[in-house]
User: Fold these one by one.
Assistant:
Number 1:
Amino acid sequence: MQADHPLIETPFSYRNCCWFCQEPATKLFHFPQSNNFVVNCVHPSLSLYCCNECFVPANKSKASSIWLVFKEVKSFLIKTYQKDLAIGINWTQEELANSQFEGGNFEGFKRSAWFMYEVAKKRVNFQGWPLIVSGINIEELKWGDTESFSFDNVEYPSIDDAIIHYAQAFSIPSDYFKEVLSHVGLERFSFAVRFCRLLVGTTPNERKAALNNLIND
Ligand SMILES: [Zn+2]
């Protein structure tokens, strides 16, 4: 457990469940992760339990809030279980039971297909539970996620759009810009822009050294 990432509260009925899909939880997931430089997170850092499978996309995510990670995990589940979910589109349970195909592989298919469909559907549809961190319900912060970001008289749909815009303008990786911002703070966006402007045409090593200097200043 990371001390600055308090564990969310879990209702008794969901104890030991994955917050993303309600399967048995096996892993502890921290947000933001140490390798994900989130500069505009609208909620406090937190930890929650999830299953092995949901941990994979969550761990890869570069999203700026736990609710956006949630969406990416659902997309992953839908993709992974596309075939199972299609059962419910192509058949009703009754049709499947009354189908004229008998014997052989199809018997096994009939038995397991509907079950697999229901499991996948339940996991995709599960909505988690309200996030309470250190005794504070943070659900309403969810809606702060879509806020646009204004800088230098330009309205960007999101902070990420602004970061990508400037990173491209300076030919530096957007992850680097994010890392700079995570150190200097979003309120000093113009400082981060000035800092990164100096790095046009630099090598990754030079940029790393510049950031170290900035941090240790
Ligand atoms: Zn899960």
Number 2:
Amino acid sequence: MTTLAFAVAATIKHDGRGGIADLLCTPDEAHGWLREHEPQLADVLGAPLPIELGRFLRPFREEILPTADEAWRELVRMRGAVRALFARAVAPGAPSKADADRLMDLQDALRAVNQAADQLGTTYLDWADEPYTRWSSPAEDPIALLAGAVGRSAIDFLTGPDRRRLRACPAARCVKYFLQEDPRQQWCSPSCGNRERVNRHYRKRTAG
Ligand SMILES: [Zn+2]
């Protein structure tokens, strides 16, 4: 399972036609995306999710809550911070082409991630059937919990062993970050690799 921060970063992708697709264009899309990523949220916040957040994710009769708008903005802001840090984590000069020219300033990105994570407080030990950890967070605000989960996930990812495997796909029409499975993997997917091989072949022929 990919981590929450990685999944948030991946909501900007290529649309398959040379453009960029944003999976978080509206509050509605962001809400749907968050519901799909409950396992990743629970991975950071613990399961079951805090009650307020659970309520936000499953609104009564599916109506979109007024907080959905605020949650959307916060999620997009956190994504900006995560992508700015990812751009810095990959080899120098090789960030995703989707937003390389409009990245959040490093200090702003660090502040966004740290302040969000701070809202979760610290972990403490609890005991149900088995011992488990819980955040000490006094925050019942679902938006603080969401942003906190993304922030915490980003910190864990960037300081963990997976950071060294983070790459931006260099294929012409791809803007994806991916985790390199082995040191020779160059492209995010076989389809990007195939497309690039065809492009190179074509360029060689037209050059010669
Ligand atoms: Zn790719």
Number 3:
Amino acid sequence: MKFEKHVFICINQREEGKACCAAKGSEEILNVMKEEIKKRGLNKKIRINKAGCLDMCTKGAAMVVYPEGVWYGNVTLEDVPEIIESHLIANKPVERLIAQ
Ligand code: FES
């Protein structure tokens, strides 16, 4: 496998007034996560990708980490370092953010 971990972050924007990840700042979360991975020199091992709707619109920002298939909901910008350090590097999923 090319990447050890693959993170898909929903950046979907739904119609005005409907809950969605874009309205919860998911694009910024995506950009910061990418930068942080690059800063740590992990961009050859860990891939951060944009995703369309992950069907967790009321729990935005939503993301899923493979190969584990761990789903996170209500993620904010402040949670990014913990997801990287704990889950992506130390292999310990961040329990308090697990959704589904
Ligand atoms: S808009 Fe993100 S899960 Fe649907």
